[in-house]
Amino acid sequence: MLRKKGLEMSNEQRVPLVLALDDPAATLEQVGGKGASLARLAAVDLPVPPGFHITTAAYRYFVTENGLQEQILATVSAVTAEQPTSLEEASRKIGRMFTHGSMPAEIATAIRQAYVALGGDDLSVAVRSSATAEDLPDLSFAGQQETYLNMRGEAMVLDAIKRCWASLWTARAIGYRARAGIAHEEVSLAVVVQELVLADAAGILFTANPLTGERDQVMINAAWGLGEAIVSGQVTPDTVVVDRASGTIIAQQIREKEVMTVCSPEGTSEEPVPVGKRTSVVLTAVQAAQLARIGVRIEELYGQPMDIEWTLSHNRFFIVQARPITALSKTAGSQVTRPPEWKLPKPKGKYIRASVIELLPDPLSPLFATLGLPAWNRAMHRFALAEGMGNFVGDMLTTMNGYAFYDLRYRTFLMKPKVLTTVVPRLMYTAQQRWEQEARPAYQAVVERWEAVKLSRASAAELLVGTREILNAAASYYLTIQSGILPAAYLTETSFTIVYEKLLKRRADPSALTFLLGYDSAPIRAEESLFDLAQWTRAQDDLSTVLQNMSGAQFASAYQTAHVDGIDETLWSAFCQYFTAHLAQFGHAIYDLDFFKPVPADDPVALLGTLKFFLSGNAPDPHARQAASKKAREQAMQTMLNRLRGPSRSLFRRLIGMAQRFAPLREDGLADVGLGWPGLRRMLREIGQRLVTHNAITIPDDVFWLTQDELLEAVIALDGGRPPENYHTSVSERRTTWEGERMLTPPMALPLKGGTRFLGMNFSSMLPARTGQPAGDVLKGIAASPGHVTGIARVIHSADEFAQMRQGDILVARITTPAWTPLLALAAGVVTDVGGPLSHSSIVAREYHIPAVLGTGVATEWLHTGQNVTMDGDAGTVTLSR
Question: Does residue 450 register a pLDDT over 80?
Answer without folding.
Answer: yes
